[in-house]
Design brief:
About 35% of the residues lie in helices and about 25% in strands. The protein is of the alpha+beta class and about 350 residues long. This is DUF932 domain-containing protein.
């Protein structure tokens, strides 16, 4: 079973701009509450608060019971002496509405409330007056909770897509993520989505920086002071779009011969000398990427260029690679985007390709 059920995704993820981009893969009207989780335009800020962030993460000390003695017992249960011990060095984080356990941390851990960090503080990066007044140019394209509320994201987008002279259509966004279980840092990242395949790419491709433009916040008492630093460190949505378009142009202008692509495959999917399952998997992986590069309309239009190679790898990682564990492909892809794994994979592939091109 998936970590998130279809019913969960239909109620605790909010999807905007459906008039332009269609419905999400998980959409099922029968699993919706009275109000749909799909919006023809941007997702209203008030709905994100009311439907997703209408609770807070709370902290409590860790307490546990051990057998007690006459000298140490604190209570009696079933006729037995019990000693309750409090661990002051750690605390549990739980949901204020359901009491569900989210994580266990050291005492110094500071909670980043989702509404504060994924809406209020994010808005301060976009406009000093807040996100709600900026919907003419930027708005919420999607937002959601995963892992029973332990993870959350809010994605801020421009309303229109951008098409480069090379025929690459994409949309720019600012992806804000956080967690209450330690799985994801509180971070803001400029990301791009390739429209033809709905793939997410890191913002800065030509520098092979896997995380693109990404700013992380430590959970310390001074973390709020870093908001102004984040404004400077991030290329916010408009600027990141211009940079991404320039990256795409450079990659499309970089020729990759068939021989160079074959050399790239050797680095990207090494084939073991010995026969067996490992060799079969590597050969199948190569064949799948070559087929995507040669014939798949999500990559083939740019065959013979560095962008075509990178687009093939990115599309394979999104739609062709094996999904492991108890999750779905869409959930895996979203998780990879918000943790930065997508950008890391792009950077690794681009580094391999550059090594091949330098040696040519």
């Amino acid at each position: 079973m998936s970590q998130e059920t279809i019913e969960w995704l239909n109620n605790y993820t909010l999807i905007g701009q459906t008039d332009k981009r269609g419905k999400a893969w998980h959409y099922r009207k029968a699993d919706q509450d009275d109000k749909s989780n799909h919006y023809p335009g941007f997702v209203p800020v008030a709905d994100v608060v009311a439907r997703l962030f209408n609770w807070e993460a709370q902290a409590a000390p860790i307490r546990y019971d051990v057998p007690g003695t006459v000298e140490t017992f604190t209570s009696i249960g079933d006729g037995e002496m019990i000693r309750t011990i409090t661990d002051d060095s750690r605390k549990v984080i739980y949901r204020s509405d359901t009491g569900a356990l989210l994580g266990v941390f050291k005492e110094g851990y500071r909670i980043h409330q989702f509404q504060e960090w994924l809406l209020d503080n994010l808005a301060s990066l976009i406009t000093p007056d807040g996100l709600a007044v900026s919907t003419d140019s930027l708005g919420i394209g999607s937002a959601g909770l995963l892992k029973n509320g332990a993870q959350a994201w809010v994605q801020i987008e421009r309303p229109e897509n951008v098409t480069t002279p090379q025929g690459v259509e994409f949309r720019s966004s600012l992806l804000a993520t956080s967690s209450h279980d330690g799985s994801i840092a509180t971070q803001y990242a400029a990301v791009q989505t390739i429209v033809v395949c709905d793939n997410t790419m890191a913002s800065a491709l030509n520098e092979a920086r896997g995380t693109g433009k990404r700013f992380k916040f430590k959970r310390t008492k001074n973390s709020l002071d870093k908001i102004s630093d984040a404004r400077q460190a991030l290329g916010i949505v408009v600027e990141s779009a211009d940079r991404f378009a320039a990256d795409v142009a450079q990659l499309c202008a970089t020729t990759v011969t068939d021989r160079q692509f074959s050399e790239f495959l050797k680095l990207w999917a090494p084939v073991p000398d010995e026969k067996g399952r490992g060799r079969t998997l590597a050969e199948n992986k190569r064949d799948a990427l070559k087929a995507m590069y040669d014939t798949d309309m999500r990559a083939a239009p740019w065959r013979g260029t560095a962008f075509g190679v990178l687009q093939s790898v990115n599309t394979y990682n999104h739609h062709g690679s094996t999904v492991r564990g108890e999750t779905t492909r869409a959930e895996r892809n979203m998780s990879n985007a918000i943790t930065g794994k997508t950008g890391e994979a792009d950077a690794e592939a681009l580094d391999m390709l550059n090594r091949v091109l330098v040696c040519a």
